[in-house]
Amino acid sequence: MARLGKVIDPELGRSVTDLGMIAGIDVAPAGTDGGRPAYDVTVRVELTVPGCPLSDTIVGNITAAIASYPDAALTPRIEVATMSEAKLADLVAGLKAERKRNPFAKPGVKTRIFAIASGKGGVGKSSVTANLAATFAALGYDTAAIDADIYGFSLPGLFGVTSQPTNLNGMLMPVTAWGVKLISIGMFAGADRAILWRGPRLQRSLEQFLSDVWWGEPDVLLLDLAPGTGDMAISVAQTLPNAELIVVTTPQPSASDVAVRAGLVALQVPMRVRGVVENMSWFDHHGERLEIFGHGGGQRVADQLTAALGHDVPLMAQLPLLPEVRERGEAGRPAVLGADGRLAGTPLAESFAGLARALMA
């Protein structure tokens, strides 16, 4: 039991013993093996839901924990069942009581929250969010992301997610892809239809994403906001006053002038603007650097926000226009990652790694 206490449920972030998933252990002598006493071991495991998507991982980790027992040859057999409705209800009630509502707004929370905003659509805000989240995860941070762009959700596609969150008696488990825990309205049935929601319902959707999803205690939470300064940006500021705003723009004035407005929302709400990211800054073509969308937009936004807000708002990164960002994103893999899920050794990945480290500094 002590060794099984080190086996962590990947979704709930607690040991299988604390969660009551070990229903029993039977040990029977089986002679000797190489001079060591041998035993047949049966572990009865109760998973939270039938067909738990991580059951193979949990069973494998339990088997490895048993095999690590010293001075004995243990032949494990794992019997897998599902918790009764009453036991699951008690578990969920305990988790909810412990967490209460909106775990990210309570005092002393360790999670760094970054809201990714833009003045207009089409500047690559969602691809920046996806690649930044994947970078944080690849650097070893426990990372979560909320697709708060209810009308134009795109994170499920950028991460290759086609499954739905697991529902534990009304508590949702986020879908994990490329090391990032994700939730999006695009993961639910009917999300392919046009969504016509107004302010109050938008705010409730964000509150549900925060309070009805079991996030654990991530190091980083990213929110992909809708473009502009509408209801969701205000809801984020009211619900997550400790969030830091990152403004994404492209170099041309038509985008950068509008991007300033997204940052100036901090004059009306308690949210600090952390910095500016300029996307599609240039395109390298056979050794020639082409500034297709002009230049200087990111620095203009940073300078204007610094003057208006009264604190330093730096230009934190300039990202090139790369076909592979689109190609890999459409294939469901953030462009900063290799096929093995690790950071690729590319200039783009290095730029995002530098941005992530600067944000956490």
From TrEMBL:
UniProt KW keywords: ATP-binding, Hydrolase, Iron, Iron-sulfur, Metal-binding, Nucleotide-binding
Gene3D superfamilies: Fe-S cluster assembly (FSCA), P-loop containing nucleotide triphosphate hydrolases
GO molecular function: 4 iron, 4 sulfur cluster binding; ATP binding; ATP hydrolysis activity; ATP-dependent FeS chaperone activity; metal ion binding
Domain MIP18 family-like, chain residue ranges per copy: 2-71
Record GO biological process: iron-sulfur cluster assembly
Iron-sulfur among keywords: yes
Recorded superkingdom: Bacteria
A Pfam match: ParA
Family membership: Belongs to the Mrp/NBP35 ATP-binding proteins family.
Subunit relationships: Homodimer.
Protein name: Iron-sulfur cluster carrier protein
Organism: Bifidobacterium pullorum subsp. saeculare
